[in-house]
Each structure stands twice: as C-alpha cells, then as structure tokens.
Amino acid sequence: MEILRNINRRKLRSALTVLGIVIGVFALTTMGAMAEHFNMLLDGGVRWFGSSIQVGAPDGQAGILSLSKIDQIRRVEGVEALFPAYSFTVKPGSVSAVSLGIPDLIMSRDPDENAYNALKTTIASGHDLGADSRGQVVLGSSITTEFKKKVGDTIDLPVRPHDARPDFVNHTFTVVGILDPTQTAPDNFAYVSLTDAQMLFKESLPVAIRDTVDPTTVTQSITAYSRPGASLSELDRIADRINQQVSGVKATRPSDVVNSFKSGGATFTAITMAAALLALVIGGLSVVNTMFMAVTERFREIGLKKAVGAHTVDILREYLLEATLIGLLGGSIGYVLGVGLTNLLNLLGRSSNLQLFLVTPSLTVIALGFAVALGALAGVIPALRAARMDPVLALRTAN
Amino acid sequence: MADIELVELARHYWQGRTEVRALDRVSLRIGAGEFVSVVGRSGSGKTTLLDLVGLLLRPTSGKVLIDGVDTTRLKDGQRADLRGRRVGFIFQQYNLLPTLTVLENVLLPLRYTKPNVKNGRRRALELLELVGLEDRLKHRPDELSGGQQQRVAIARALINRPALVLGDEPTGAVDTKTSEELVQLMLRLNREEQVTFVIVTHDLELAATADRTIRLKDGRVLSDEPVEHAA
C-alpha cells in the first residue's frame, strides 16, 4: 500500500515515468506484432518450400512444362508424389509497388497434396474440392474476409480489372469451402480444381499460341514430394537427382528457398526489435531517474526505517517493488494500447488485404515480462543505494 | 528495561586532514528505568553518543553493552534486529512517513520486526490513546500540528515495548507549551512503561526534569550528576 501511495505521491513524475515505459512497451508490442506476423508468413513459406521440391521450366524459359515430365520425374529415386501446380493472380492488372504481404492468388489444389506437405490446410466450413469438381472454389481465410464471402456464395475469378480489355474472360465459381486461418500464404489463396486451373491457364496464354496448346498436356510447374517428413538435405539430394536425370526441367533445392526466407525474416525481426528495444531502454532510463530521485528525496525515510529495525534487504525489497510496479503499470498500459492499435489497423486493413500484425502469446509474455524486468532492473541500482545508506547519514540529511 | 554500559567509547572521523574526536573514550553506565538528559554545545558529541547507543553508528573503538551484550561484536543484521526490538527513537523533525496514516506510522516498526501483528495493532491503539491521538488514526502527518506529530513519533518509538528510548532534541521544533506537554508525556511513559529514556537536548527545562544530566564537552564527559528535584 505504502508503495502505491509513494508512486501516487509525485503524480506528474510518476506519470511521466510510466509514460516512458508505456511508449517503450507500446513500441515493443506493435513492432513485435509486426515481426510476429511477418515471421508467421515466412514460417509458412519455410514449411511449404521446406517439404516440397519446386520443379519448373529451366532458367530463362517460359513457364510451360509438358505433363509428361511428371512420369519422368516419378522414376527418380526418392520421389513419391507429384502434383502439377498452377497459380494466377486474383486481381490481374492491379498495381502494387510494395507489398508487405502475400498477393491474392488462384492456385490449383489436389486434396491429396495435404498429406505430403508440411503446411497443412484444414476446412473451417463447407467441404474440400473433389478430384473432378468444376466451377468450385475453396477460399483462404483472408481472401474470404476481403471479398466478404461465405459458403454458397459465388465469386468471379479472376477479378475483372476496371480497365479490362474487351477480350478479358473470367468465370463464376461457387464457394464450397473456407479454410481455417494459417497466418500465412494459404490465407490469401483461392483454390480451384486441376481441370479449372488448366482452363484458366489456357486463357492466360498469349492469343497467338492459345489454340495450339492442349491444356491437359501442359502445366506451369510441378511440385514434387518425397515421403512425408523427409529432411531438407534428403530433398536437396532428390532435387539434384531430378536435375541430373530429367532434361528440360529445373528443380530448385528446397534449402535455397528456405534460407532466403530465413535470412529475410532475421533481418526484419532485427530491425523491428532493435527499434522497440531502443524505445524500451529509454523508458527504462526514465525509471532509473525516477527511482534515484525517489531515493534522494526519501533519504530520511530510509534512515528512519533502518532506525526502527529495517534490514538492508527490507529497504532493497521495497524500492525494487516500487520500480517493478512502475514497470508493470507502464507495461500493461503500453501493451493494451499496442494490442488495441494493431487490432484496429488489422481491422482497417481487412478490405485491402493488409494484415500487418499478429499478437501472439509469446509476444504478450515478452512485452510484459520485459516491462517488469526493466522496471526491476532499473530499480536495482537506486534500491541498492537506498539500502546501503548509512542510517545516521540518511537521518541527518536535511530535506 | 535496559542496562546500558559504555566502555571507553570513541568515535573519530576525518575532516580533510584533521582527525575529529566526536566522542573521546567515554565510559558511563545508564541503569534500567532511568530518565537521562545529555546536554552540551553543538559539536560536543551528544548526537554521536546517541547514534552509538542507538546502534546507528559503529564506534571507532570501545564498546556499547546493552544488558551485558557487546553490541560491537554483532553483525549489521543483528544490530538492526536489536535496534528494532529494544530501542525506540524520537527525532527533532519527527520523521514520520508522509504517505502513511497516524496508525500506520505507529505500526511501521512492526513491518521489520514482525511480531504478532494483531497484538501490535491493539498496542498501537493503546499507545495512541495514551498520547491523546485516538481520534486522529486515519490522519496523515501533514494534517497534524508539530506537537501532535511528535506524539505520533513517541507512540511509534514505544510500539515494540523497547527497553530504551533515545530522543534527539525531541522538543526542539515545538513551542514552549507543547514542549512541556511532550516532556510530561515522556516522563509518564518512563514511569508507567518502565522505559529508559536518554534525551539529547538544548532545552534546559527538559534537562531539569530528568533524573540525571550528563554534560558533554569536546567529546568528553564534563559532568554527570543527578538532578535535584524540588520536593
């Protein structure tokens, strides 16, 4: 109680100190939420690309592969499953110079692929695509919110650009299923069946060659899998073998993709965390300052407490507790403000597919833990100084 | 009650290059239940004597024995415990904690000596009644007059039923009338609670009410004699 009253005693100064911590933890929470969101995105990429081998046309060639390559790759040792893969942008012609998220994509989906890939998707409502379904789509969670769809609604894909050419075509798909959020790429995907993907693929080809191609014999790329749970180095070796044994294709080593994801994530996390920690350290210094002032102001109180029997540890405990409480108070306010702001921004960003923040339990623990630890740490030196004071000196100080 | 014995007690400190003998080999004995005043000019060593007896300060040499225990051999923690349980302090500037109420201020020493808290509360109420502040329990120190604050401090000094109460100019900051009331209060507590009082003072009237006056000069005992009270 006395501690709360002491904090209350110098209201303006306590408020400013708490504000310092508030700003620090606020920065930590928002920056951290941004980093957490980004890391979840990257983690999805790591899981997806770390469990599959992407096979495409050789470097420098247009993205068309003969489906017959599938049979050749299947013979490579270690390959267990292969899926033709197609992807198209949901919003052709839209301009986005800088993107902090994953663009909305139409992807081909074979329900069997889930068994092989480490990044699993599960149906939240409705049902999955059948092997030969036509005109049906399964939507990721973000794209569902963005287009405000529910199971049974229809959606025209790709979305007609506002300046569409007369020969632009799209198709009406019925939403049959919606996926659970993954906090990563599949949230922004609209999944169609292989047959529908081949139809879209044909329409995406230049007019000059469009009619010469049988869409059932070609694919944009192929995703190859080994047994589920195969290690990254095993997959790398399989990719090498594909490149050696199958001509006219280029298999990318999964570790190359994973490493690029990881280094990107590390840089981003480092930048955001450095900014947040800086803010927090400044907040911490304000606690140090306040506690030093408090100790100086209360020399006589410290002396008196010692005179009536307080041990060094008693004084130490009281001052540490006060500093910790300031940290906790500021931390809680900063955290609540941070969560409020990130939620608000995510809500505002929904319609434009801009989800930048993710507040995770670990972030909560880190933000509050840091605030408390910082408060305590900032209180240590002033508290030690208070506790070690010579009682006579403390008592006879004029103030 | 406490029996205090000072043996060749000295406390020196350095002021620049000069060694100052704040207290210079003082030996004396204060018996249980005595009411002793210590007088002398500023710098005579009165406060140093009080700080040494109150275990707030360690002597340069010599001993402070409280009930036969050589306190100079005790560790800091043990001295703090002994101070908390056996010694009460009254200061010129009261030294009440401004954020605590009257009752909480009186209870403060119990926070560190941790006896039976329920009994402690009863004791605090009893003492506050004794000093005439039973209707000011929830007040803050800044809502009280100087005399009232000093009475709170006196109650606080007695909360742990100490054997010895040390007063450092306890009447130095109040007017004459209040001073007289405080002196009467301390005398009464000395009789009723059987507590030894050692009071450092400039106040000759206060000194005159004591059983015994010790006069210090330049860190040495100039005189030590019983006070003749008019019958």
Report on the architecture of this protein.
The complex is a heterodimer of chains A (399) and B (231). Chain A has 399 residues and is α+β, with helices and mostly antiparallel strands. Chain A has 2 domains: 2-42 and 261-396, no CATH class; 51-252, no CATH class. Helix content of chain A is 54%, strand content 13%. Chain A is built from 12 helices and 13 strands. Chain A is elongated and about 100 Å long. The two termini of chain A are 24 Å apart. With 231 residues, chain B is of the alpha/beta class. Chain B has a domain at 4-98 and 162-226: Rossmann fold, CATH 3.40.50. Chain B is built from 7 helices and 10 strands. Chain B has a 6-stranded mixed beta sheet, sandwiched between helices. In chain B, strands 2-1-4-5 form a 4-stranded antiparallel beta sheet. Chain B is globular and about 50 Å long. Chain A binds chain B through residues 2, 5-6, 8-9, 300-301, 303-312, 314, 390-392, 395-396, and chain B through 47, 51, 54, 56-57, 76-77, 80-81, 83-85, 88-89, 91, 93, 95, 97-100, 104, 108-109, 111-113, 156, 160.
What series of H and E elements makes up the topology of chain A?
Answer: HHEEHEEEEEHEEEHHEEHEHHHHH
How would you classify the helix and strand content of chain B by structural class? alpha/beta
What structural class is derived from the secondary structure elements of chain A?
Answer: alpha+beta
CATH C-level category of the domain at 4-98 and 162-226 in chain B: Alpha Beta
Shape assignment of chain A: elongated
**Annotation field: number of helices of chain A:** 12
Find the count of extended strands of chain A (DSSP E, 2+ residues).
13
Largest interface: chains, residues each: A-B, 23 and 29 residues
- Approximate helicity band of chain B: 25-40%
Can you tell me the number of structural domains of chain A?
2
Radius of gyration of chain A: 30 Å
Strand content of chain B: 25-35%
